[in-house]
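Researcher: We plan to redesign the surface later, but first we want a full-length starting point. Tokens attached.
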């Protein structure tokens, strides 16, 4: 066993200095280098007085497609996003990422963590789009670890026997409205609930085990 206690009051020590930040993106395809990034939502995770993980701050941005971005019509039909709709009030990738990273850096300082770690359901997808957009906008020094992620699909498979977000939420008795799905904000908030549930559940189980 590690000499770092699992049930610490400090997020700084809970994940080796990592601060979990749940991220969900909506896009116009699957290729992070060519397809438009259209929406970003992030939920910063903290710790309550009972040492349980809990969402503490939510951020959300509608993003204007970068110049020359590709659009897969099947992806747009799936998300229901109309990229040029005036009521989206979309901001540039640079504005969205710069503001997001600023809020995360403030949280890192407040919680005395060294770096953020992206939490996502199939997290490689969200991280790949953030990394591609950061390069396009010359925001190379991002607060996220370059390759480490916490994947709720894998954690759900281990603890709940499910990999699909909706089914994992159902197994965890977390309310999920399919009509709200595929909105970055809704999916990020539900993924954050799921991540906190999974970690808190495992922590509660570990507390019941006798010392070796």
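Model: Full-length starting sequence:
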């Amino acid at each position: 066993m590690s000499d770092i206690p699992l049930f610490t009051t400090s997020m700084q020590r809970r994940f080796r200095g990592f601060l979990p930040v749940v991220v969900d993106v909506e896009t116009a395809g699957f290729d992070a280098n060519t397809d438009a990034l259209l929406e970003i939502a992030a939920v910063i995770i903290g710790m309550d007085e009972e040492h349980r993980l809990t969402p503490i701050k939510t951020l959300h941005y509608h993003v204007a497609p970068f110049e020359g971005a590709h659009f897969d019509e099947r992806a747009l039909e799936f998300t229901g996003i109309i990229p040029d709709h005036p009521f989206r009030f979309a901001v540039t990738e640079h504005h969205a990422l710069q503001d997001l990273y600023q809020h995360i850096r403030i949280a890192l300082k407040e919680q005395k963590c060294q770096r953020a770690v992206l939490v996502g359901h199939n997290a490689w997808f969200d991280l790949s789009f953030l990394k591609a957009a950061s390069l396009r906008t010359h925001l190379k020094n991002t607060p996220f670890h370059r390759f480490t992620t916490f994947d709720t699909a894998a954690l759900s498979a281990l603890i709940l026997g499910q990999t699909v977000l909706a089914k994992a939420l159902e197994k965890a008795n977390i309310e999920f409205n399919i009509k709200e799905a595929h909105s970055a904000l809704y999916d990020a908030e539900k993924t954050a609930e799921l991540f906190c549930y999974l970690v808190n559940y495992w922590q509660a189980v570990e507390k019941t085990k006798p010392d070796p």
